[in-house]
Amino acid sequence: MLMGGHSTLTERQLLSKQNTKVAARSRRDGEFADGDTQDWSSCSKSVEAYVAGLEEGIMETRNDLPAETRRDVAETLNHVLAIVSDLYSQTKQAHWNVRGPQFYMQHKLFDEVAESVEEHIDTLAERVVQLGFKARGTVRQAATESSLPEFPTEQRDDLDFTYALSDRFAQAATETRKGIEDCEVAGDTDSADILTQISRDLDKSLWFLEAQFRAIGDGSQEPTAENTRFPQRSMQPAGR
Ligand SMILES: [Fe+2]
């Protein structure tokens, strides 16, 4: 329900936000300026939808993207936010617990790729809020919403850690690219651009991780932790 005292003004503001992009353009052109003769009663459904939104915690904004676009995009961004937050914590988990012959190099590498993930968390969450919605950014929310599998607790050595991480970076990049498509379909090219930057960085981190493994042919074979390992070199006694 509308709050008493300023319902008329609120309805007008809400209606202009609930209308389509065309309506938003018209508003900029002055068609819906204060004092016009628009029949607001015909848009009661839009008012109801907006008021329902208020009850859900949707925030007021002058952003001219249609409310439906903003809602769809905020959902997409919150989904990627959960994945990226989960990926960050899993990468730090690997950074802390890695052991093996390449410990120091892997320990540093995992920290660097974790940093490249972390910087996107803030951008994603703030974009959701800019669109008038709430960011779902707590650890619990990320754990509930992320589609990544939990980081395995048992690894033999540093390469197992690297392999588990590369799996998760690949999945995060795939999900982010789906998000780009969703934002473009919804009509928010700015959010699509944010996700494009993220997917590019995820791909770069994936390259750093996968470069630890050997190629296995023409690309038609499914890579596994075993078939992509370089053969172990055995130590030869001196003089032989
Ligand atoms: Fe550290």
Instruction: Give the low-pLDDT segments.
Output: 1-43
The name CATH uses for the topology of the largest domain is Ferritin
User: How would you describe the shape?
Assistant: elongated
What's the average pLDDT?
A: 80
How big a fraction of the residues is strand?
Answer: under 5%
What is bound: which ligands?
Answer: fe (ii) ion
CATH class of the largest domain: Mainly Alpha
What is the N-to-C order of secondary-structure elements (H for helix, E for strand)? HHHHHHHH
Number of beta strands: 0
The structural class is mainly alpha
- Biggest sheet descriptor: none
Task: Give the end-to-end Cα distance, rounded to a whole number of Å.
Answer: 87 Å
The radius of gyration over CA amounts to 24 Å
What is the level-2 CATH architecture name of the largest domain?
Answer: Up-down Bundle
Task: Tell me the number of helical segments per DSSP (H or I, 4 or more residues long).
Answer: 8
Number of domains: 2
**CATH-defined superfamily of the largest domain:** Ferritin, core subunit, four-helix bundle
Helix and strand arrangement:
Blueprint: H1 7-18, H2 21-28, H3 44-56, H4 67-97, H5 103-130, H6 139-145, H7 158-186, H8 189-210
Bound molecules: fe (ii) ion.
Fe (ii) ion (FE2) binds at residues 95, 111.
